[in-house]
Amino acid sequence: VAALDFLDDELARLRRDGLWRDPDATPPDPTLLDLTSNDYLALAREPVSRETLLACSGIRAGAGASRLLDGTDRAHLALEAALAAWVRLPSALLFSTGYAANVGAMSALAGPGDLVVSDALNHASLIDGCRLSRATVRVTPHRDVDAVVRALDEPARRRFVVVEGLYSMDGDSPDLRALREVTQRAGAILVVDEAHSLGVFGPRGAGLCAEQGVVPDVFIGTLGKAVGAAGAFVAGRPELRAWLWNRARSFVFSTAPSPLLAAVTLDRVLTTQAADARRAHLLGLAGTLTARLRGAGLNVPADTRGPIVPVLLGDPERALAASASLRRAGLHVRAIRPPTVPEGTSRLRVSLHAGITAAQLDAAAAALGSLAP
Ligand SMILES: Cc1ncc(COP(=O)(O)O)c(C=O)c1O
Fold first, then answer.
1. How would you classify the pairing of strands 334-336 and 159-164?
2. Is residue 329 within 8 Å of 220, Cβ to Cβ?
3. Any idea what DSSP says for residue 68?
4. Which residues of 312-329 are buried (b: 16+ CB within 10 A; e: fewer)?
5. Beta-strand relationship, 334-336 and 346-351
6. Is 246 one of the catalytic residues?
7. Which terminal residue of the chain, N or C, has fewer Cβ atoms less than 10 Å from its own Cβ?
8. Is the model's pTM score more than 0.85?
9. For ligand 1, is residue 98 a contact (CB within 6 Å)?
10. Is the CB of residue 194 less than 8 Å from the CB of residue 220?
11. Which helix (H) or strand (E) holds 283?
């Protein structure tokens, strides 16, 4: 035990720097307005209906093994077929989480001698996947297409450009059409992680690539955010699925997701596809809140679009104090600090969901507006 004494110092350092996260956190107070989850369509909070549960009766709770070792259930295959059809790609492979999908896909696709051009704000799971791949990684400034073009000049066996559809801490999007053109011209592979845009944008919620008519080589979607369930998938041509099935270590060496959960998730996917009214309401709330906060003099980045509305405050202590004062006003808004975001850009991340009423939004806008200097 003494050998772990260094943790006392490390934890004290986190506290001193305002970076401490409390591992004893209890579930959030249900009387607070949730402005922090990724439950954009307010589906995660909805109990599974009796009909869905009945329809799922008889489906196994556990897969019992990896997909490669007979863990495959019909529920996995049905969900994968529905997901591929949703995002208009030929095939999809289900992973337990988005973290596992990104780590598995990037490390299976890229390798030594390859080049990965990665946006500076890419999610930790994409970064970890790139690191595991042992490819050369060039990080380009956020949403800078010219920098991507320059980075792609570097000779390599294979070249990848990796971006997100909607950035989770900044709420903005890259120019997907331009990136598709640039990668096509360079013979590079375009990887788009639509964790935060699937279900929110595009026809039937199919995402920003679908909205913009962009066909990525590798599409990643998560099922724990707008879809309101859990898991993730990688979609693309059938050879991509076959390769990941064989080589994505987070897929191969992991028990298959629960078949019961896969069946419930399929039900949620169908609900998400049909949720145009929720999407319209959500995007309306987002437009109103963004305009009001900017009007109040708060720093909401210019290109923010959609349900993630960041309010930049600078240092971690200020973000924490703002979050605490909002809590007293009945709002649950998370302070986001390094290492999740770069030093000096601590912020409130206001995350909207479709269950918020116009009156609740009005109250939230007033409370947030009062934080303006
Ligand atoms: C862009 C992005 N990709 C992947 C993930 C990981 O997904 P999951 O939570 O399903 O592991 C997240 C967040 O959790 C994310 O923000």
1. unpaired
2. no
3. G
4. bbeebebbbebbeebeee
5. antiparallel
6. no
7. N
8. yes
9. yes
10. yes
11. helix 276-295
